[in-house]
Structures are given as C-alpha cells and as structure tokens.
Specification:
mainly alpha, 2 domains, 4 helices, 0% strand
Length: 99
C-alpha cells in the first residue's frame, strides 16, 4: 500500500475540526478517511494536547485548599524528579557510547 501524503492545508483543516469545531478525534478521522493516530500526531504537533498553565489560586489560609495545593505540588515534584532521573540515565548512556 502506497504511503499517502497530505498537504499542510489539509492537516490544518483536519486539526481545526477537532480544535475549533468540536469534533471528536475518532469522528474527524473517520470523516476524513485518515488514521486516528495520524490525526492525533498532527494535533500534538500543533499543541492541542498541551495544557495551559493553571491560574494561581487566590491567597488563602483555608486548610482544605492548602492540602489540595500541597498534593498538587508534591505530584509535580515527583514528576520533575522522575524526568531528571531519566535525563541523568540518558546522559550517562550517551556519554558512554563511543563515536
């Protein structure tokens, strides 16, 4: 089966169906007769899956709000530490490779 090539305009239009017109990814892919993973890749390249930064909550001394904030910050810290460890291992691996 030959590989299909799509123009940038087609890709932009397909992504606009999902991002602006409210179509689901699967529904849009079926209507356009393309693979769902292809459409998801195009959406990812266009930043459709990046979350906007969360607004900072107003300053408060409410214990429940502070508990939620602490849990969120701890989760972010765990993720950052995991990413740092992965980068350390990757750096060590590539540094040990000889050109």
């Amino acid at each position: 089966m030959a590989r299909r090539r799509f123009t940038t305009e087609f890709k932009d239009g397909a992504c606009a169906l999902v991002m602006k017109d409210g179509y689901g990814v699967v529904e849009a892919a079926r209507k356009l007769d393309i693979d769902v993973s292809t459409l998801r890749f195009w959406l990812n390249k266009r930043g459709a899956y990046t979350r906007p930064p969360e607004p900072l909550p107003p300053e408060t001394n409410d214990p429940e709000v502070l508990k939620v904030r602490i849990k969120d910050l701890e989760a972010r810290l765990r993720r950052s530490e995991m990413e740092k460890d992965i980068l350390k291992k990757a750096t060590a691996f590539f540094a040990s490779q000889h050109p």
